[in-house]
Design brief:
Layout (H helix, E strand, L loop, with lengths): L10 E4 L4 E4 L2 E5 L9 E5 L5 E3 L3 E3 H5 L2 H6 L2 E6 L16 E6 L7 E3 L2 H6 L1 H30 L6 H18 L9
Antiparallel strand pairs: 1-2, 1-6, 3-4, 4-5, 7-8, 8-9
Helix pairs in contact: 4-5
Length: about 180
């Protein structure tokens, strides 16, 4: 019998069309006398339903997710609004942290100057935390793999951690709903 390969709201590469799409609806095809669907197709909003063989999950199609995430790092940007003498109480006077998430130093996280000046140590911590997120995520996935590979040997505390990680993974993979009227 057919099993679903993709989940609703999952981003997939549609090979025959050559574009990214989101699974809008999972369509099971039932046959009389069977307890399970005999085939499953996916509606991605492109005018017809696609079979699993025509779709690829986002990380499989891209193949560079690990490389892209390993580029997250903290850079220092020059503070244009304050002189070094005005911000001597900052951990790095005259600069503020910028987390870049691209190999070309584009994209990422920046803090407003006034907010940085109000609590520079908090902003420095946030920058390091955000830059470390891909590595922390990889460790969490290793814990999930360890528990999944040896469920009977996993201590209850580790199993509870794995359940929390699964909930966070679900949240990370969740596609936000469109705003009403958009």
């Amino acid at each position: 019998m057919a099993k679903t390969v993709f989940q609703k709201n999952q981003r997939v590469w549609v090979e025959s069309v050559g574009c990214w799409a989101t699974i809008e609806k999972i369509v099971p095809i039932w046959a009389k006398g069977f307890d399970e669907p005999v085939r499953v197709t996916y509606d991605v909003g492109l005018g017809r339903e696609f079979q699993a063989a025509e779709l690829k999950a986002e990380d499989k199609a891209d193949g560079r997710e690990g490389d892209a995430l390993s580029n997250w790092r903290v850079l220092r940007a020059r503070n244009k609004w304050q002189q070094e003498g005005d911000c001597a109480h900052h951990p790095h006077p005259g600069t503020y942290p910028v987390v870049v998430t691209d190999a070309n130093d584009w994209g990422g996280w920046r803090t407003p100057g006034a907010e940085y000046d109000r609590d520079p140590y908090k902003m420095e911590y946030q920058a390091r935390l955000i830059a470390s997120a891909p590595r922390l995520h990889a460790i969490a996935r290793e814990v999930l793999t360890l528990v999944a590979d040896h469920p009977e040997d996993a201590p209850p505390a580790l199993t509870a951690l794995a359940q929390k990680i699964v909930a966070i993974e679900r949240y990370l993979q969740e596609m936000p709903a469109a705003a009403p009227g958009a």
